[in-house]
Amino acid sequence: MYHVQLHFWVRGIDEKIVRIWQEAEPLERFTHLFHNFSRSMRLPNGRNQIVLLGDVATLQIPMLRQDIGTKGKLILCADSVQDLPGEELAYFDAIWPRAHLEETAAFHFHRLQQLLKEEKDAWLTQTYLEQTINTLPDMVWYKDIKGLHLHVNDAFCTAVNKRKSDVEGKDHYYIWGIPREVYESSDYVCVETEEDVLKARKTCLYDEEVMSAQGLRKLKTYKTPIFDEDSQDIIGTVGIARDITREKEYRSTIQRLTREDQLTSLLNREYFYDILKKNNSQAYTLLSFDIEGFHGFNERYGHPLGDAVLQIVAEELRSAFTTNHAARLGGDEFAVFLPDDLSDETAEASVKAFQELLSFMLSMDDRMKHLRVNAGIVHALPGMTPEQAIHDGGMALDRAKKVGGGACCFSRETATA
Questions:
Q1: Which residues belong to CATH 3.30.450.20 in the chain?
Q2: Is pTM beyond 0.70 here?
Q3: Topology classification of domain 260-410
Q4: pLDDT interval class at 80 (50, 70, 90)
């Protein structure tokens, strides 16, 4: 990917030696340029600047190092450094013995080339890593064996609302702002899963929760041990966490929409059928309801008020029958599944209690006070299909409608007003 032009700045070195260096073959992706320089010159700054000195007289070594920067290379060719102040020696990256330098020039130069290539490759690898992890929307972190964060990506900093300099070198409790005693008394499992990874010595997947700057977040987290190059001892871990909070919320919303009636939030017809089908191996009670005169009410007062009536009915169904299995089958038709096969008296009493409570609620509005809800009761036997149970409920409800005024009828008996 990269191409590097190295600039070699030479001063006080025998021309034969310089020629050996000039004739050396550059490594792949590298080219060489050689320059002589005087003490009055200001050299460029950067990793690609290499200064080779055989004569340091009259040179300001600290100034020279400042010119090429910490990433440039400053090399002294000398047999003795006694004439150099000790503090100036620290500015040099290497000292090549000048005696027999002609014989070892190619060796030293090749080693220098290899070093420069390794540094460039390391820079490229680091760049790859940084660009990759900071582009990801997922949180990425690296920890040492003690659990201290060595490095994190931008998404991690966003989640904890801290800068990298505030995160790196810190533990889990500090970063997430959770006192250790609070953590230990909560359901958080981040630290414990780190220990599991160390024991498993392989990548592990976890569902975790953390309190982030955006509130409580649900995470799908991969944690992988990092092994030492030689001993294969675990020296740390790398973690990648995907925030699935919204995904779970969306999934919950989709699930709710597929099973609920949008207007009343009761179960819809399809999901109610599924409930009856799952329970058809047992006896149960099915209650059917419809609103007497609802069609005329809608025509007279309009659909917005009609929708309000349907919502009131739904709310009272939820209050009267806490089974959570109340449904709107369509229009003004409602049904309730009761998992027990109630006696006639109990079933009828529960229906009457609901009808009376609903009538009281509707009576608060003069436009609604004349509305009544008729009911049908079915004792479903084991093996009865949902279609058959709903049909029997409809037949009972039809007979109740003929009586009217908030009647209740069993599927096998005459209606009672």
A1: 137-248
A2: no
A3: Alpha-Beta Plaits (3.30.70)
A4: confident
